[in-house]
């Protein structure tokens, strides 16, 4: 297939949505699936508050009527109703909390999964646009904040509307003037006061979300970089910046507390006004013979019970600003353009793996990292990609494992454009051993089983043998259950790379990309590890990306990159026979090491 050197190729017959990012589901989609539970929770909450209103109203009537000493049988229904409303209030409240939290946690679980899936689509090429601590805050705090939309905003407002309307209707049936007074007071307490709360605390609430995220980011960076910051005397400045963020959070919390206090005062005033208005209207009605004196207690107590429906609305309204800010921060992740087009097919085969006229650009970069690169990988073939730092080697590795899509040219697997395939399915066939391989803070066994969770101990040791580290693992008191520490801090750099190699071997990838696997190692250890890497991956297609040239003589082809372009390619002997960057680098490396790297270096223990 001819390559288009100016723009990325669109595979013939590709689905229409192939070139566009997949539409991200939002929390609203999860809420739609949990609508039944949310409606049930609202109904139960309305029932619980309705029982509270009915309990107080019935109790007022019962006390007033009992003062007249009627026959006991006349009070039996009211007594039973009081008991029923009392039990129903507690029971319905418990079930409402159970159902409401269940629905909300389902929504949050689905939302968190989608946010993580989106981050996985963005990583690692597009993730540098976000600071690590900030991503943590978005993934944890901002997702958790979304629960307030359902538990503290939508459900309380919906319940308040239902119970408030019924309370007003009940008061109006007894005394229209009392119903009108209650309606006005509820509008003040349920609409005006929350609005004032939002206007007063909106800025503080938005700043709280942003400052909390900044505090998390700073704390994470401070903890991760503590040794370097202390060594360079910069820890004090970071701690002072952290203290300033904490003081900003305190000021925001104080402003929010002031708004909450104002809302509570206004709600209390509205409640008192409703009670006084009901009392005045009720007394006048009793005096004029329009209201039974026994019902006066009901008319007066009803506003007290009804205002329970709006008491929490100012807090709910205050939460709205936080939810909106968290929504906006999560929307930034959803809106970020994935660096890789996600197809849906699974590759039946990998070979030949062909790059033709490929160019690549990192997200946000103004210049291309690779230009006009041609590469062909066949089964069992070994290719060494060499070049100085910044030559484009790691960009090529990112292309091969589909962390990045070509910005020009074509990339095909077994003759089909790679955009057809699910990136995860491609990575099941093209393995990656990074220059700074990540080890999880758990045991050697669990770190290896990342590649194959079902692998047994014989398979684990077979992979360790291939990586030339099995004897060291056997010598450990805990063996495979030895913890490696956070990011592998309890093992040496060479041991970390060998464990990462064992993980790649265990996975059984047909294609292995070794991206600077000997970085940060001393030359003898680096050269020994290179030879072991090549031995462990023998029989598989291997792309060795390295700045050192020792071991390249065992490659079937050597590709020299400079400035994102291929400047030389050929076998080791052919490249040494001509003047060029490979020969210059080879001679410099031999001179600097004080030895000839063409011979097999003596293995040096870690």
Order of helices and strands: HHHHHHHHHHEEEHEEHEHHHHEHEEEHH
User: Which structural class best describes the helix and strand composition?
Assistant: alpha/beta
Reported CATH architecture of the domain at 25-335: Up-down Bundle
In terms of DSSP E residues, the strand content is 5-15%
Which spans of ≥5 residues are poorly predicted at pLDDT below 50?
1-26, 595-606
Keywords: ATP-binding, Membrane, Nucleotide-binding, Transmembrane, Transmembrane helix
Pfam families: ABC_membrane (PF00664), ABC_tran (PF00005)
Region (Disordered): 1-21
InterPro entries: AAA+_ATPase, ABC1_TM_dom, ABC1_TM_sf, ABC_CydC/D, ABC_transporter-like_ATP-bd, ABC_transporter-like_CS, P-loop_NTPase, Type_1_exporter
Describe the structure.
This is Thiol reductant ABC exporter subunit CydC. Its main location: membrane. It is a multi-pass membrane protein. It is found in: Cell membrane. InterPro entries: AAA+_ATPase, ABC1_TM_dom, ABC1_TM_sf, ABC_CydC/D, ABC_transporter-like_ATP-bd, ABC_transporter-like_CS, P-loop_NTPase, Type_1_exporter. The protein has 19 helices and 10 strands. It is of the alpha/beta class and 606 residues long. Among the domains are: 311 residues, ABC transporter type 1, transmembrane domain (ABC transporter transmembrane region fold, Up-down Bundle); 71 residues, Rossmann fold (3-Layer(aba) Sandwich), CATH 3.40.50. Strands 6-7-8-3-9-10 form a 6-stranded mixed beta sheet, sandwiched between helices. The protein has a 4-stranded antiparallel beta sheet with strand order 2-1-4-5. A hairpin with a 2-residue loop joins β4 and β5. α3 packs antiparallel against α4, α6 packs across α10 and α16 runs parallel beside α17. The longest helix is centred in the middle third of the chain and has 53 residues. It is elongated. The N terminus and C terminus are likely disordered.
């Amino acid at each position: 297939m001819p390559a288009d050197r100016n723009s990325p190729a669109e595979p013939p017959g590709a689905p229409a949505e192939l070139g566009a990012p997949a539409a991200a589901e939002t929390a609203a989609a999860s809420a739609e699936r949990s609508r039944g539970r949310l409606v049930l929770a609202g109904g139960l909450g309305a029932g619980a508050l309705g029982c509270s209103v009915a309990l107080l109203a019935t109790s007022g009537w019962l006390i007033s009527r009992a003062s007249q000493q009627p026959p006991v049988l006349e009070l039996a229904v009211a007594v039973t109703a009081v008991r029923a409303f009392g039990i129903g209030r507690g029971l319905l409240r418990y079930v409402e909390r159970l159902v409401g939290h269940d629905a909300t946690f389902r929504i949050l679980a689905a939302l968190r999964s989608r946010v993580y899936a989106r981050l996985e689509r963005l990583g690692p090429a597009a993730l540098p646009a976000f600071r690590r601590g900030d991503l943590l805050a978005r993934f944890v705090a901002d997702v958790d904040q979304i629960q307030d939309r359902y538990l503290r905003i939508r459900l309380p407002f919906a319940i308040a509307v239902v119970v408030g309307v019924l309370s007003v209707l009940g008061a109006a049936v007894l005394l229209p003037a009392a119903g009108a007074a209650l309606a006005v007071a509820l509008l003040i307490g349920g609409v005006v006061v929350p609005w004032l709360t939002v206007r007063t605390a909106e800025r503080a609430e938005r700043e709280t979300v942003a400052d909390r995220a900044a505090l998390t980011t700073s704390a994470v960076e401070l903890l991760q970089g503590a040794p370097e910051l202390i060594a360079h005397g910069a820890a004090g400045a970071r701690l002072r910046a952290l203290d300033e963020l904490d003081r900003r959070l305190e000021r925001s919390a104080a402003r929010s507390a002031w708004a909450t206090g104002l809302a509570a005062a206004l709600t209390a005033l509205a409640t008192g006004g409703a009670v006084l208005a009901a009392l005045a209207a009720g007394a006048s009605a009793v005096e004029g013979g329009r209201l039974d004196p026994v019902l006066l207690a009901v008319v007066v107590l009803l506003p007290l019970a009804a205002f329970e429906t709006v008491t929490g609305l100012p807090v709910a309204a205050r939460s709205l600003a936080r939810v909106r800010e968290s929504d906006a921060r999560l929307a930034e992740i959803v809106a970020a353009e994935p660096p890789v087009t996600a197809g849906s097919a699974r590759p039946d085969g990998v070979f030949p793996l062909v790059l033709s006229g490929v160019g690549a650009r990192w997200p946000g970069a103004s210049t291309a990292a690779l230009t006009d690169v041609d590469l062909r990988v066949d089964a069992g073939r070994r290719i060494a990609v060499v070049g100085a730092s910044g030559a484009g080697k790691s960009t090529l590795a990112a292309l091969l494992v589909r962390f990045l899509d070509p910005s020009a040219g074509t990339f095909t697997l077994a003759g089909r454009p790679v955009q057809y395939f699910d990136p995860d399915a491609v990575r099941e066939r093209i393995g990656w051993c990074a220059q700074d391989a990540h080890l999880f803070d758990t045991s050697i066994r669990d770190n290896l089983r990342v590649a194959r969770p079902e692998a047994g101990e014989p398979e684990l040791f077979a992979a360790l043998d291939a990586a030339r580290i099995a004897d060291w693992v056997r010598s450990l008191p805990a063996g495979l259950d030895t913890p490696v520490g956070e990011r592998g801090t309890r093992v040496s750099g060479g041991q970390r790379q060998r464990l990462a190699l064992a993980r790649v071997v265990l996975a059984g990838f047909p294609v292995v990309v070794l991206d600077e696997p000997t970085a940060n190692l001393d030359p003898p250890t680096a050269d020994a590890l290179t030879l072991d890497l090549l031995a462990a991956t023998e029989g598989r297609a291997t792309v060795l990306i390295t700045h050192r040239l020792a071991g390249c003589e065992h490659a079937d082809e050597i590709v020299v990159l400079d400035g994102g372009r291929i400047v030389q390619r050929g076998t080791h002997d052919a490249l040494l026979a001509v003047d060029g960057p490979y020969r210059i680098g080879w001679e410099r490396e031999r001179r600097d090491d004080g030895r000839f790297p063409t011979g097999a270096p003596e293995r040096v223990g870690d």
